[in-house]
User: Fold this.
Amino acid sequence: MAGSIFWDLLFLSQLSTMTYQPVFILVLGSLATFRLSHLMTKERGPLAVFEHIRNALPGGRGSAKEWLSCIWCFSLTASALICLILWAGGLRLSWDYWILHWLSFSSVSLLINRACK
Assistant:
């Protein structure tokens, strides 16, 4: 049993052949959303590439720089990207479930961010 779960986790590219496991998708999607959001909004990145991107954008209220520097704002975009990746990987859900996944990935990633402070 444990070996089977290990191999399922190892071969994520076979998501379309796996049975739909909502908790597994929620945890993985939320962790991926948190990582992407934290990487883009808080970290410097290799050769400070993410910091350079944030600093190159024009500032001001409601600007792209504010959006890319705010984890609360960017997590919605990151969760949409994760949903797109899951869809491209073969996960098929109805549109209302995609909206729930999009919002829940963002919400859980913000809870993770809050817990890590």
Observations:
- Residues 41 and 70 are 6 Å apart (CA to CA).
